[in-house]
Amino acid sequence: METSLYIEKKQEFKNLLSIRDYRYLMLSQIISSLGAGVYQFALIWYMKLLTNDAVFVSFITIAQFVPLLLTSIFAGVIVDRGHTKRINMISKLVCSITLFLLVLFIFLDKIQPILLLCVAFILSVFSAFIQPATSVMIRTIVPSELMERAQSLSFTILRSLSLLSLPLAAFLFRYGAQFTFIFDATSYLLSFLFLYFIKNKHLRKSTLSDLTFKKSFLDLKEGLVFIRNHSFLRNILIYITLINFILAPISILFAFTVSNQDELALLQAGTPIGSIIGFFILNKISKIKSLTKIIIGILLSLVGSCLFTFPFGIYFGIIFSVLIGTGIAFISITTNTVIALVTPKEMLGRVSSMNMIIVLCFLPVGSFFGSVLSNFISIRYIFGLMSISLIMILLLMIFNKKLQNYDNDKLIISGNSQ
Asked: Over the stretch 314-350, which tens digit does the pLDDT of each residue have?
């Protein structure tokens, strides 16, 4: 039985990777994600070297967060109406050109902090289009029965790249900031070229010509109404928003549970490692209900958070971090799959953007709340409060009849019918 199941799963991945357009899309995503990880490190570190001022460094975060949030509101509308492939390609090309121009200013020794802020602003605006466009492309290219495989593979690759991008950025920066930004610009350019080879005709459809300001608001409203009327999706997004809020302070709290930067690096590495482990476990239990997978993810995150309330050595801490990362993988991969399957293709850009906006809003709020709370109570007590909060969400989900009425077959049928 186990042998036949293994063969079936292996065949599913083989079928997924046999899709030519999907291979090009994944190559594009891998290259641009690696470049984006290097870019994030390089931009912050270069601003620190230029100014040695924490305020200016914080401006980088603002220049990235605010335009991404504001642009995302309408990016999904444009993606749903537009030539999805072209929108993705243009966004990647603009990012590449912007970074090459930054490199030119560095070579000319004309670099100023305001220029880095402008670069952060431009890349943030166009990044708002890349995420929903990629979601729509995956949903269009990949059949419903292979969607979970595609989402889990994409998530795992991105988490793996987060482990690789930081040491790569540090290595390139040793030879000069211009080399890190050359790498970033080249990665976006190569990503643009791989997108060019995707031939799916459905990705070239466009109704942007008749889009007006009023229609964009109506499209946005249509997406909100769909989420409100779809009980399963609405409830899942509410719970996932609360989970994001609860788990948001973890990266900050980690810094106060260790004694030096080496221990912090080990602790932070545990989360993406756990995500990779979660990918492999999910592939072993792909037949169980989506809700059950999310509940397992909450349980794993709950156990990991709870264990941080006790005294521990760094190696036990890494294990706890791996547990949290595994839980996050269960929650994120399953949620992205559910969104892709239950949302009509012509509305997926808007729903993906709204999901991203929710995450963008609640992650910094949760992080700020956790950091403020740490001034009044012990870090270990905060982990305890996080655990209690996760238990409450877990119980709410288990006893929510609207969630219990859906299973994997209904999700796939819903995706196919739309």
From this structure: 888 889 989 999 998 898 888 888 888 888 877 777 7
Contact by Cβ (8 Å): 57, 337:
no
CB 155 within 8 Å of CB 27: no
Number of other CB atoms surrounding residue 213 within 10 Å: 7
Structure token pair of residue 179: 């080399």
Q: What does the block give as tokens for 414? A: 């819903």
Quote the Cα angle for 350-353-358, to 5°. 125
Burial environment of residue 371 by CB neighbours within 10 A (0 to 12, 13 to 18, 19 or more): middle
**CA pair distance 294, 301, nearest whole angstrom:** 11
The amino acid occupying position 405 is N
238 vs 403: CA distance, rounded Å: 12
- Residues contacting residue 147 through CB under 8 Å, at least 6 positions apart: 138, 139, 337, 340, 341, 415
Q: Are 152 and 293 in contact (CB under 8 A)?
A: no
Return the DSSP state at 204. G
- The reported pTM is 0.72
- The DSSP letter of residue 42 is H
Residue 317, classed as helix, strand or coil, is: helix
Q: Tell me what pLDDT residue 103 has.
A: 93
What number is the average pLDDT over the span 232-252?
Answer: 84
